[in-house]
Structures are given as C-alpha cells and as structure tokens.
Amino acid sequence: MRYMSFAMTTDAVRSQAKTVTRRFGWWFLRPGDLVQPVEKAMGLRKGERIKRIGPPIRIVATRAEPLNAITPEDVVREGFPGMTPDEFVDMLCRHYRCAPDRVVNRIEFEYCNER
C-alpha cells in the first residue's frame, strides 16, 4: 500500500472531515485504489517512523483541473472550512511557489472504516 502525506491537514484527516486533496502528482491513482494517510512520508530523520492517520482511504475519483478552479464546497472538503477559494489558492501558491492556474490532480476519497 502506498503512503500519502497529509502534513498540512492532519487534524482534518484524523477527524475524517477531509474528503478531497489536490496534488501536483499522483496521476497514477485510479478509483478503488487504497492509500494509507500518514503525517509525513518523505524526509524522515534517522529513527523517525511513519505515523499513520486513521484508516486507509479509497480513491473515488481523480481529475486534472487548474488550482484556481476550486469551489467553496471543495475548500471545506479540503479541510479548510474558514477559508475562501481565493485564500486557499493563495496559501497553496505561497507554500508551493506556483501559479494559481497550475494544473493539479483533484483526488476525491472515502475512509475505509471497516476492519
């Protein structure tokens, strides 16, 4: 199983409020794929271990779209209910040093709570 980092939205994943994520990669994902959400997957220091955040997630849908095409509903689904779409785009553009119209992979997912 692959690990996907949710360092910026750990609490939203832990509470299962986040059901959409935007990535500049992960183009290989297909509906039905399972992914384990983790706090951090890369850049672990010696002795650090991957910390899982809740159950695995199942990919529901993916699509390419410009970052600035995000809707108010998707800002909430991204785990940022207090932000506007413009604030969300500005935050990501500053964090990743990218243009607002950069194409991202919009990944919709659900939590696999059955054990």
Summarize it.
This protein has 115 residues and is an alpha+beta fold.
What does it look like?
This protein is of the alpha+beta class and 115 residues long. It has one domain (2-111): Sulfate adenylyltransferase (Roll). The chain is 20% helix and 28% strand. It contains three helices and five strands. It has helices spanning 10-14, 72-77, 85-96, and strands at residues 2-5, 20-23, 34-38, 57-66, 103-111. The chain has a five-stranded mixed sheet with strand order 1-3-4-5-2, with no helix packed on it. The longest helix has 12 residues, at 85-96. It is globular, with a radius of gyration of 14 Å. The mean pLDDT is 94.
Which helices and strands, and how do they pair?
Layout: E1 2-5, H1 10-14, E2 20-23, E3 34-38, E4 57-66, H2 72-77, H3 85-96, E5 103-111
Parallel strand pairs: 1-3
Antiparallel strand pairs: 2-5, 3-4, 4-5
